[in-house]
Design goal:
Blueprint: E1 16-17, E2 20-21, H1 33-47, H2 55-71, E3 74-77, E4 83-87, E5 90-95, E6 98-101, E7 108-111, E8 119-123, E9 125-130, E10 133-138, H3 140-143, E11 144-146, E12 152-163, H4 168-173, H5 178-194, H6 199-203, H7 207-225, E13 229-240, H8 246-315, H9 317-333, H10 356-360
Antiparallel strand pairs: 1-2, 3-6, 4-5, 4-7, 8-12, 9-10, 11-12, 12-13
Helix pairs in contact: 5-7, 8-9
């Protein structure tokens, strides 16, 4: 006699075993399959004529089952989805959004991946929902990377991707875990691009270049995998030195900024002073060149004048000497403050109303130096 059929025994009444009470039911009792089949047969007998399953009943049941099986091939594709039909597990065709049909299971089956939805994967950070709201948690094992100049930088970035047009079959059959594959490829591509760059451009103005390089490298790798995935954008969220050295790194950056500012100020001063010095030097050179030209021209003029006078002197020496003497005396006595009156027969002294004071205050013209010697009427020189 089995233990479950014992009404009582040495361990008490009820369905008990040798180690205590039997298993207790923790939920609703599952339905009895035999009871369900019996009730279904009873209802079917009441519907069929004669109350039993004859040839017509079996044919009706078979026809109904075939109809239900055939109708099961209809399926709906949403606007953001694409239908992929498989026949005995092999890819056959793609179907557009809307109501479509495939041969019923198990001949054909259909999958409907979302091909227009843009997916996002965060690397180096996780968004968590808490009682206080949404918080961002850093994942250092994903974000810490080595730069080209052997510095460590903490990079958090996001990757946006979707199923490539015409690549739904590759997306479904060539990769097993699309999100994991995209995440691994993105992290590898970012580490490779960061490893080629020094830390200074990474922290300042090279973000756009890095994002473009990572996107191109990811797309190339996924195409080699035949993943059927299109990387639409790579967006760097945060780029900082590690938390342990960020204060020291900021001090270094501040010192570099001061150095650059001092260099710029010195360059500005040099750009202002050097042109001024060059201009002043050019001005001095031009003044010297002008003085040289003036002196040479004056010397040539004096030489020409002396030559002309010499020619005239050779033609008429007496007349030339007299003329030169008179011109010389005119120049010499013209600037003197003396008044000479002729007190001859026609003169009777100084006229009382003669304006002598005004005549003495007139400005004498400057005496021009002469290079050549001045002959006197007596044959000498002055």
């Amino acid at each position: 006699m089995p233990w479950s059929n014992q009404g009582g025994g040495p361990w008490g009444s009820g369905p008990k075993g040798p180690w205590g009470s039997g298993p207790q039911s923790s939920g609703p009792t599952p339905p009895d399959l035999e009871e369900m089949l019996r009730r279904g047969q009873d209802k079917l007998r009441t519907v069929l004529p004669g109350g039993n399953l004859g040839g017509k009943g079996i044919a009706l049941i078979t026809l109904l089952a075939v109809a239900i099986w055939g109708v099961s091939g209809f399926f709906k594709v949403e606007p953001d989805e694409l239908g992929v039909v498989m026949r005995f597990g092999k890819y056959v065709r793609e179907t557009p959004p809307g109501l479509n049909y495939h041969l019923p299971y198990p001949i054909e089956t259909a999958l409907t991946p979302k091909v227009t939805r843009v997916n996002r994967i965060d690397i180096g950070m996780r968004v968590e929902d808490t009682r206080r709201g949404t918080t961002m948690r850093d994942v250092p094992e994903e974000s810490l990377m080595l730069t080209g100049d052997e510095n460590i930088v903490d990079v958090d970035f996001a990757v946006f991707w979707l199923v490539k047009a015409g690549g739904a079959a590759d997306y479904l059959f060539n990769i097993q875990q699309p999100e994991g594959t995209v995440k691994a490829v993105a992290e590898s591509a970012m580490r490779e691009v960061i490893g080629r760059q020094p830390i200074q451009p990474i922290l300042t103005g090279a973000r756009t270049t890095i994002e473009t390089g990572v996107q191109e490298l990811m797309q190339k790798t996924l195409d080699e995998y035949g993943a059927g995935i299109q990387v639409s954008q790579v967006q760097m969220q945060k780029v900082d030195p590690p938390t342990q050295v960020i204060d020291s790194f900021r001090d270094v950056q501040a010192a570099r900024s001061d150095l650059e500012r001092a260099q710029n100020e010195a360059q500005t001063y040099a750009n202002r002073v050097i042109p001024e010095a060059r201009g002043q030097a050019a001005r001095i050179l031009q003044a010297a060149e002008g003085y040289r030209l003036q002196t040479v021209a004056e010397a040539k003029g004096q030489t020409s004048r002396f030559t002309q006078i010499l020619d005239q002197y050779k033609l008429a020496p007496e007349v030339t000497r007299e003329r030169m003497y008179l011109e010389t005396m005119e120049r010499v006595l013209g600037g003197m403050d003396k008044i000479i009156l002729d007190s001859g027969q026609a003169g009777s002294g100084v006229v009382p109303f003669l304006p002598l004071n005004e005549m003495t205050r007139r400005t004498a013209p400057p005496v021009q130096p002469q290079i050549q010697s001045t002959p006197t009427p007596m044959g000498g020189t002055r």
